[in-house]
Design brief:
The chain is α+β, with helices and mostly antiparallel strands. Helices cover about 25% and strands about 20% of the residues. It folds into three domains: about 1-30; about 35-65, no CATH class; about 75-120, Cytochrome c oxidase, subunit Vb (Cytochrome C Oxidase, Chain F).
Length: about 130
């Protein structure tokens, strides 16, 4: 109701101020329906949605894939530099975290449970 009143007031004011015929203002969604998330997204959200369309995960938003952690198929750890600090919860209900460094160029073994980890290079998207 208030929107219609405002539109009517605007068009009346425009007609009175100029001799030209003023077109009535229209709402953006009146004819085309509700815009999708992709149409409304801007900035970082838009970049992430476009990357998801291409099948990429630029900011590691999705849950990482699970690997068994053996020497042949180690857990992959993305790292920007040459090394990364890794915390391993060796047992499901364990409260103590075992911390150790993983360096690029080979797999490293957790000193407590024996799970293997491998550092892989990761590029920052921005």
């Amino acid at each position: 109701m208030a929107g219609r009143l405002l539109l009517r007031a605007c068009t009346t004011t425009l007609r009175l101020r100029s001799n030209a015929v003023a077109r009535p203002l229209h709402r953006a969604m009146a004819t085309e329906g509700i815009p999708t998330d992709e149409e409304q997204a801007t900035g970082l959200e838009r970049r992430v949605l476009m990357a998801f369309k291409e099948g990429k995960d630029p900011y590691s938003i999705l849950k990482p894939k699970y690997y068994p952690g053996t020497k042949e198929d180690p857990q992959l750890v993305p790292c920007i530099g040459g090394k990364r600090l890794v915390g391993c919860l060796c047992e499901e209900d364990n409260t103590a975290i075992v911390w150790f460094w993983v360096h690029e160029g080979g797999s490293h073994r957790c000193p407590s449970c024996g799970t293997y980890y491998k550092a892989v290079p990761h590029e920052v998207p921005h």
